[in-house]
Amino acid sequence: MTKSDLVVYVAKKAHLTAKAAKEAVNCVFSAVTDTLKKGDKVVVTGFGTFMVRSRAARKGRNPQTGAPINIPARKTPGFTAGKALKKAIR
Fold it and tell me: For the whole model, what pTM was predicted?
């Protein structure tokens, strides 16, 4: 499912216009992004939790030359599915 498919689905389910559904979907994604940028987590009960995970610095290897390189630490978004979502998928 793409973002445009999601907008169409929301428009049908919530009886909204396509423009209003697009705005609603964009607002939800924007809220999740802004919250994660602050370092907080987003908990959607029954669906799951979006959080920021930290990856430690590590040594790597350049695949072309084989030379060792240092890969810096960074933050990455993560998602853990909730109990209800896991049960629905089974």
Answer: 0.80
